[in-house]
Design brief:
Blueprint lengths: L1 H62 L2 H19 L8 H23 L2 E4 L12 E7 L9 E6 L1 E4 L2 E4 L1 E6 L6 E2 L2 E2 L15
Parallel strand pairs: 2-6
Antiparallel strand pairs: 1-4, 3-6, 4-5, 7-8
Helix pairs in contact: 2-3
Length: about 200
């Protein structure tokens, strides 16, 4: 009889030990899963930081010349204005050489801009006004250009690798519902002169 009691006690102890081991195993398995998840999260975070740092480094390299390029835009404008004011027929050979030198300088500057990712924004007459690339300086009626189109470029714009560093300053054709005569809306009441100044 004492053998039976000892066997029962031994079975109970074995079951208790197994239950304790199973509970401990479950606890360790859950802890292991949590640590794995945490390690994966840290790895993903490190990868994100690495990508962000790489992207910021690329941006810094690409756009690092933006301030320098922006300061040279006025030089490009002055050279273009100088070439635009040259008379058609020049008799003096020294003056002809001087103009040729200015032209070569302007072309070299444009080439340097091109090599470094600086692209000119110079919309054609009639091109649709784009507020992302253009800045409307004025709006006026036009018989030649549809409303909302560019009439003329007052100052060329520039972009650096797709990022606008200076928008093109343009005059835009006015949008009007009625035919326009002498810059006034013919549908307006007498004594009332309206000009549509809204651009899209």
């Amino acid at each position: 009889m004492s053998d039976e009691i000892e066997n029962e006690d031994g079975n109970e102890l074995e079951q208790d030990a197994t239950a304790l081991l199973n509970a401990e195993l479950e606890k360790l398995t859950a802890e292991n899963a949590a640590l794995k998840e945490q390690a994966l999260r840290y790895a993903a975070e490190v990868e994100n930081i690495k990508r962000r740092a790489e992207r910021e480094g690329n941006d810094a390299r690409a756009y690092g010349i933006q301030k320098f390029a922006t300061s040279l835009l006025n030089v490009a404008d002055v050279l273009q204005r100088a070439l635009g004011s040259v008379p058609a027929d020049i008799a003096d050979p020294a003056f002809k050489n001087f103009v040729a030198g200015i032209d070569m300088t302007e072309k070299e500057l444009a080439g340097a801009f091109e090599k470094n990712g600086v692209k000119k924004i110079n919309p054609l007459k009639g091109e649709k006004f784009d507020p992302n690339l253009h800045q409307a300086v004025m709006e006026q009626p036009s018989a030649e250009v549809e409303g909302g189109g560019v009439i003329m470029v007052m100052q060329a714009g520039y972009e650096l690798f797709g990022r606008v560093i200076r928008p093109a300053m343009v005059a835009v054709a006015a949008k009007s519902a009625a035919p326009v005569k002498n810059g006034y809306d013919s549908g307006a009441a007498e004594g009332e002169h309206k000009v549509d100044t809204q651009a899209e």
